[in-house]
Amino acid sequence: MLTEQESEILGILFGDGCLSRTERSVLITITGNKVDDEKYLLGHVRGLFLKAFDLELTSRYRHGENTMDLYRHSKKVSSVLHSWGMPFGLKKLEDLRPKIEVIPSAFIRGVFDTDGSVYRKYGPYAQIQFKAASNGFMGFVREHLVALGFHPTRLRPDETKFRFSLCRQNEIDAFFRIVSPTNPKHLERLRRIRHPDLLTAAR
Description:
By secondary structure, this protein is α+β, with helices and mostly antiparallel strands.
């Protein structure tokens, strides 16, 4: 079974990561928005890899895009990540799920921080959404949220992806308490939707 940190790292990679084989090594890359995700990537994700693997990720900003990457070549670490279920190259959509037991809340935290969203339903009411191209991957995340006591909507396809949501307002608060997202953009968006004193009371 993976540790808390390892489970979160795997969730991060499943959400917005990639393992790319090069001629002599493997490139580990995690991608995000250079405005919305910079604090999260530099302040949190870098630290996770340093603690778990003693691997310091380098940052780069793509010219002419709103995108940034954390990256590092490491055949050794990539081999470990692959053994956990992270594929090399393109993610095979039909078989995208961990190959080892994870701590569900930590894995879901990694997925949500990199690839989830929280937005205003109406008024002060928030909604959380998970969305990905892999039906199996979304099914895995949904199953574990149910096991944690949540009541997500049914998994539904749209034009290119599969999605589900958390809509019950008490479960939105519970999600931020139990899964405990660390990406500042999600925390700030929830604060903007909720009145600040309501958010404080919910925690």
